[in-house]
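re: ur question from earlier - yeah i can do the single chain one, its not a big deal. heres the input i used so u can compare w yours
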Amino acid sequence: MTEKSDFTDYIYHFKGAWDVPSFCGLKIISKKDKTIVVLTELYDSNPGSSVTSWIDKLATGLIREYEIEPEKLILIEHNPDRKSSLEFINETFDLVTFEWNGEKFVSPSWKRLTLNQIVDIIN
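and the output i got, formated as tokens:
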């Protein structure tokens, strides 16, 4: 088990599809009534599964590893700016919500957020 603190920020390693080693940025901000988890896609550095394709499995694994109550989880997927003129690779933040079936998260749904909305969630 990983040690719990009010703020965690590091590269998180996980087994992706077909057990391929994968990783992403992980930030966990623990508040009294919520736990905010920000998963950052690392694109070119990540040899395995993307955050988007593995989001429900990542969320389920993280609540177990960090002892997060499923109903207190606020998960944000962050895709950093790829320094291109193409709009689809600009920096984005998405609130990801799930259904909890009693054992794992299922049916992820994404909602695009502004930077101001992210700040409001964290505060």
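The radius of gyration is 14 Å. not sure if urs matches, ping me
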